[in-house]
Here is the input.
Amino acid sequence: MEDLQKLETDILKAITVLDNLAALEDLRVSEVGKKGRVSLLMRELGKMTPEEKKKFGPKLNGLKNTIIQAITDHKATLEAEELNRRLQSERVDITLPSPPENQGSIHPITQVMDEVTEIFTELGFSVAEGPEIEEDFYNFTALNIPPEHPARQMHDTFYFPENADGNRKLLRTHTSPVQIRTMMEGEPPYRIIVPGRTYRCDSDATHTPMFHQVESLVIDKDIHMGHLKWCIEEFCRKFFELDDVKIRFRPSYFPFTEPSAEVDIGCAFKDGEILIGEGDDWLEIMGCGMVNPRVLENVNLDPDVYQGFAFGMGLDRISMLKWGIPDLRDFFAADMRWLKHYGFAALDIPSLSTQNNNPGGRSQSNRGGSSSPTGDRPPINNNAGGK
Here is the structure.
């Protein structure tokens, strides 16, 4: 058996002169790998007498351990040197400001949803949520929508395939199912708002298959239309940042409210812009009414004891009105230039206490765009007004 001391010296010397990890790995394989020189020497122990094994066994094990440790230490040194080289070549001056194009923005729909929530929570409402994949009962039946109603047809509603019992789930067509779930899960009184996404089979300049709504529900004893009117007026005054707001109620029909009304807000159309709170024109912004007694019966409430009101509006629509956004489709175009123009800073949080100073909400005039480039009335999301 060759001189183990000389072998160890030669291998350790070879390790120290290597300057890259690939060469070090090649040396490890050639010396202590499965077919390396030291490994082959250890196989020779099987041919030795017991006395020779006692003499050379510890020496060979010591040699192998020494080489492995030397390789491990040198590998750590080479890795540290490589890391330092990368840090020097890839270093970034963190004292420089981040480029403006890397700054994110809050989408106007998100901002408006936060503003609406802020206003209604100040009025004592709580926020309720529900599933977007809904049952027919909650979306239609419990809301007094008859089987022959056009909204139930496939040209208006996104249905899923039938399940084993023949029923089909659907994408909710309004946020009203959350009202039913809320009334069935707890005892009155209720005072909730329900913001969220809704879906209908519409796609053109004024309609999108997915849009956003917010609904309100109040159920208690001795609730009347005066409460409804005050609540809507107060919301419009705060949302559109007006000291005085002019609204009117027009008789209408919804299966889930009786009596029902459409709500118009006073406005003026001037130089291609919509000026809310001015002029003698009117613009419809939401649907509302007193909760139909049949809806209360469907959730096991006595309509002779409890009454209530509900109203709903399209968040996309009121966003267009407040910020002068002319085209509904731009909300979903993923155009960074559009978002940079209409978007909000990440810390631009809505706040009623500071709204008059305008850090949390921007007035219509400083969004920098008319409501219609042609001077005509802007396209409005008709499927988001009301329910």
Remarks:
- DSSP finds eleven helices and ten strands in the chain.
- The radius of gyration is 36 Å.
- Residues 354-387 have pLDDT under 50 and may be disordered.
- The longest helix spans residues 50-89.
